[in-house]
From TrEMBL:
GO molecular function: hydrolase activity, acting on carbon-nitrogen (but not peptide) bonds, in linear amides
Membrane-spanning parts: none
Alphabetical list of PANTHER family matching this protein: 1D-MYO-INOSITOL 2-ACETAMIDO-2-DEOXY-ALPHA-D-GLUCOPYRANOSIDE DEACETYLASE, N-ACETYLGLUCOSAMINYL-PHOSPHATIDYLINOSITOL DE-N-ACETYLASE-RELATED
Protein name per UniProt: GlcNAc-PI de-N-acetylase
GO process terms (BP): glycoside metabolic process
Origin superkingdom: Bacteria
The organism of origin for this protein: Planobispora rosea
């Protein structure tokens, strides 16, 4: 299929995530869109997510299950390649922050330069024109997400990857929605989200992915270990949303590209910013 008129000729986009299921939440629609346009889409994860919450006990078995789910998600999105860098899932301390009981090979403890060079080898091999990472705060602050920003930024420098986008969420409508919900659930603490992700003014790319809502939903559904086991699991709740509403709520994916003029509003990951 021909590339979008706002995009460059078909090339390769590498999506770098910390754990399986992160791609479903933040970038799945964009991945499906690029694959449909003829771009090569490569999904790289730093860990297998073996310390995630699930009915399966944390450890190797959970990691294997989550990698199988990741491959299923990638197939639904049209990915050409899936790579796991093989670092240990750093986990998350109660209340947030770095867990003390993390494994010896935890991603957060990895040599940043070595990890960056491993990712850079993939970027170079794929001749990638685009890399997605997270913002410096890691979205909501997960240590592995923060490390994705550090490692990914450096890898792009090494490989000379021209476009680096930070996958994020527009926190302005998110906060409005949470505050509305908070009227009915006073116990809901929204303070953690007041600095999470990015404000609308920081966002440079607003990608309309409504046409790919079914692929995004299939990507989420692939991660069964992360969608079951509790009524409040984020993925589980999202998958219960009726499709028309789901398409509306999850129809936009947001990115920040550093160094662009304030107020830049682009609609496609490969779109060339106006000059001058």
């Amino acid at each position: 299929m021909a590339a979008s008129p706002t995009s460059r000729p078909p090339g390769t986009a590498v999506f770098f995530h910390a754990h399986p299921d992160d791609e479903a939440l933040l970038t799945a629609g964009t991945m499906a869109m690029l694959a449909a346009e003829g771009h090569r889409v490569v999904l790289v994860v730093a860990t297998s997510g073996e310390r995630g919450q699930a009915d399966i006990s944390p450890g190797e078995a959970l990691g294997e299950a989550r990698m199988a789910e990741l491959r299923k998600s990638a197939a639904a999105l049209g990915c050409s390649r899936v790579v796991n860098l093989g670092y240990g899932d750093s986990g998350l301390a109660p209340g947030g922050g770095i867990a003390e009981d993390r494994p010896p090979n935890a991603f957060i403890d990895a040599d940043g330069e070595e990890a960056a060079r491993r990712l850079a080898e993939i970027l170079t091999e794929e001749e990638a024109g685009l890399l997605t990472i997270y913002d410096p705060a890691g979205g909501y602050g997960h240590p592995d997400h923060v490390q994705v920003n550090r490692v990914g930024s450096r890898a792009a420098e090494i490989a000379g990857t021209p476009i680096v986008l930070e996958a994020t969420v527009n926190r302005d409508p998110l906060l409005r929605g949470l505050k509305l919900v908070g009227r009915f659930y006073p116990q809901l603490d929204t303070r953690a989200f007041e600095r999470a992700y990015a404000s609308g003014g920081e966002i440079t790319h607003r990608v309309n992915v409504r046409r790919f809502a079914r692929q995004k939903r299939a990507s989420m559904a692939a991660h069964a270990t992360q969608a079951t086991g509790a009524d409040t699991r984020t993925l589980g709740v999202m998958l219960k949303i009726p499709h028309p509403l789901y398409r509306l709520v999850f129809g936009t994916e947001w990115y920040v590209r550093r160094g662009l003029p304030s107020g830049t509003r682009l609609r496609h990951p490969f779109e060339v910013p106006p000059q001058g």
